[in-house]
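Translate sequence into structure tokens.
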Amino acid sequence: MVTAERVLPLVRLTDEELVLMGATHPAVAAPFLDGLDPAGRQLAAQVAYRSLCAHGLEPTADGAALVVPDGVVSMMQVRAAAGEVLFVSRTTSHGQVVRYHHFGDQIVVLEDVAADGVHDFALVDRARLTDALRTFVSADGAIDGTGEPVVIAPDDLSAGRVDDARWGEIVVHLDATVWRADPRAGTDPPVLLGFLLGTAGSWCSRNVMGDPAPVELHPVRVSEVVDGIEALMRT
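Result follows.
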């Protein structure tokens, strides 16, 4: 029996709070701020500054920044120094959450980003990452896929002209890829791994990022999803 690794957030920050802390990251989206014009972004930052001060953070001597607790600083340092970031997007009927896994030597900083620009941070030992990932991608009600591979043209996929009988109702839709600070570190071009985990079957696609080629779906066992995602780190 596998024990679920439920990760509890340690810190919750918003897009604009991360900007004020100088903690933006090239791999991490800022969904709330990205939808604002420059004036809106400035106003959001001003409101965030007041909110952080109200929650006890003190401004620096020159007033240009805020004094951040040491624990948060240490976590952000691991996040900033990570040479690889595993991206896993989980979409259900309740919405989408993107989890970024920032790899340190002994620990992994987990960053869950919701569509409203809220970032929940947590830490997990590298030895326990597989269990945490298994919990994040869980799909109760999905069953293993069977049958021959299916090829879907990009136009049909974007227009919704797809026979969904093979997977039925989608329980969870997952996308996964790896961002590398040094693009030369990987032996292959960046790969986007996709999973449709449904009530009638589960299917997997593997495509090179940006490749307009048709999507080929292969049946997959639900229990193999975590192995497939972890294999991305070895490419």
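Note: The two ends are 30 Å apart (CA to CA).
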